[in-house]
Amino acid sequence: MSDSKLVDLNQNFLTLLAQFNDLTDSFFYFYKPERVKLFENGQRPLNSYRASFYGALKALFNCRAYEVSPLGSNVDNGRNRKPTYRLMPRRTIHKKIWEVGLNKINDTVGRLLDVDKLGTMDGDLPNIEEQFIINLDEMENTITILCTVYESVNNCYPTMIPQYPKIRSVEHFFAQYALHRYQELCEKYDSNLFGQLLDFLVSRIQRCILIKDELSLLVDDKAIEHKLLPIYSKYKAGNLPFIYKKTLVLELKLGDGVGLSQQFTKKYLEVINYYQDFSDTKYIKRLRRLLFVTKKVLSNECRQLSDYLCQEILKATLLNEVNLKPLLKTNINHANISSLWLIIYGCLRNGTVDMCRGGFSVAFDDVSDNKFWSIIKQLLETCINRPYEQEIKLLIWDSLRKRFHGDLHLVEFLASTLDSYVKKFMEHVKSLASLNTKWMESKFYEKSINDMKSILKVIDAMNLLSTFIPYYYEKYWFRRLILYANEYKKCVDENVVLIEQEISDMAGSSIVLALTMMDVINGIKKNGITLEMNNIDTVSVAVPRSAVPEVFLEYDVNVKTLPKSLQSIWDEINVTRNFLHSASVVQPQFALHHLEIETPFMLSNNAKLIVDVTMVQACILEQFNEDEEIKIDDLASLYGIDKAELTVAMESFVGVGMVKKVGIAYSLNYDYNPNSGVNVSGKKRIPYTISRPTQKEHSRDTSWIIELLRAAIIRTLKYEQKFMTFDELRDQVSTQLGGVSVAEFKLAVDKCSDYYTKEKDMYKFVW
């Protein structure tokens, strides 16, 4: 082949290479990351560029070029000789093609540091860490463009990739080259600089994820804040920089042979270990976000690494007993329910539930019973229809029993709590002028009913309903019914569903007292009497004697004559009652009567004090309307009330300072300050300060305790499936209930005789 042809071939190759370089420059100039199909100002479509790059690379790849052979020389023994040419190796052609892209990477890396000045700079480079983060973002854009430029190499000419197949793609090649260029550049200044930059980068990534304040606080150099904030926003959203996100799976190596993933993992875990502020109320939420981002960013490209990182992070936080306790303590103190659920979920999922159970016991030590229940109630609501729902509930049941040292005290606490909910609800009803169907849908109504239901659900789930209902009925329910008869009447008249309906539905026909509750409520709706006379609002309810707890039947007050203001309305009620209950004997129970009376004492808000009193107390106050000074003997003669009962009632007024005593006479204390002990509605209850006179012996009804013990005995024998002595059985049951007397336990054992066989004073369950 003639020399002129060889020169033409070489010139053709150089021309094609120059055209490819110009086309790449043009693409870099017009390329906009946010535009996918078209460039701004009507420039060439992306597909048109791709076609041009494909054609240019194909031409270059198939091009033949020649170069002067190193074996020949123009001068030999002083004589001019004709140059000798040889075919240019394919590797050389490929290298020149790659140099076009590599120069773009060199330009991007060069913007980080001025290579010529590296040897002359003293001290730390100003803001080099933040400049590095900006430069990485620019590098991502550079490599993204180059991957489009060299796209056809992956598909048509993979052998053109240096070190193929070890280097698997164009992206792999450029990423590896960029990493080495960063490292080479930094080592010219300081051998440790590149490692410091990578450490700073990982630290910033995690702080962006975990930070509770504004991202701007992470910017040191405010002059470049406008560049850094968009990048930090991407980190916060879970987008790692290209150097990590796209190359961890490629297992890129640093100059010393250490894998980038190893360096990344080490620093990633160092940062989470450093950020251990367990008093931070948002720590768990940020930890969850860190785990989520770790999974999201890495799982698609490096699943094994993401799983390892997440597990190591958990080991350093939730799965570490030393760290778990302060975490629980912080979130319990601040009632962070979602965070508490995440802690329990994490422990269950990783098999450390026992450690979590122990941590809960310690963390709740300084929390009041009411706050404890509030947290437990919200946890139960949160775990519904979520993973490990049943396991979390079992952990909560166990915590409840431990907190109250067994079922016995737990039932007492939950009954008291339910009563407080009912009282608050009825007080709200009392404050309303009227009820209507819209009120039934109010947030307060729904919240109140849900709070009450939450207790019943726990009681039912723990198989304590048959014990709870008798205790609640006797201890609280009937008393609340008497005190809020008017409010109960309002509710049933407007068909407002009360908690009694829920109890009845839950217990069914198996618990008689649950049916009795609904019978009483239905009786109030059908036969309750509401009457207004002489500016007195009155409600009268008739309750079957069988529905009245024994404790309320053991004490009665005999009032032969009522005050004049009450007598007329009392007579009217009797007429109506006799009509409704013509076939029944109805007996008034003055000891259960409850009245609210307006007094002349003025509160700080200029409203008159209203006192909540019994019938005997009301008789005393009524007489003060007639006489400035009264005596017990006169009151006894006037109303026919026992003197001892009157004395107890009178002393209750003396005890709060409303009445003063001089000798055997009593008079109102007009200097009385009524503001203490007044509720939000301006009402005050006048409690008895000394015990009422005993009418007959009263023994505590312990039937509900016996039933509770009976259930525990049967459960224990059934579980053990072996002969047990009386003491062994009692010890086992005591650990469940606590506070059990020997007498009550013996009685409960006798009531279980159908469930065990007895041999030599030892008991065993029989099927």
Care to describe what's here?
It comes from Eremothecium sinecaudum. InterPro entries: Cullin_homology, Cullin_homology_sf. This is HBR404Wp. The protein is elongated, with a radius of gyration of 44 Å. The strands form six sheets. It has a three-stranded mixed sheet. Strands 9-11-10 form a three-stranded antiparallel sheet. By secondary structure, the protein is mainly α. The protein has 32 helices and 15 strands. The model is unreliable at 35-42, 115-123 and 696-700 (pLDDT under 50). The termini are far apart. Among the domains are: 1-69 and 83-115 and 123-164, no CATH class; 555-693, Ribosomal Protein S5, domain 2 (2-Layer Sandwich); 702-765, Orthogonal Bundle (Arc Repressor Mutant, subunit A). The protein is 59% helix and 8% strand.
User: What low-confidence regions span 5 or more consecutive residues with pLDDT below 50?
Assistant: 35-42, 115-123, 696-700
**Structural class by helix and strand composition:** mainly alpha
Radius of gyration: 44 Å
- Overall average pLDDT: 82
Q: Classify the helix fraction into a percent range.
A: 55-70%
Strand content: 5-15%
What overall geometry do the principal axes of the alpha carbons give?
elongated
Helix count, DSSP H or I runs of 4 or more residues: 32
DSSP, total strands:
15
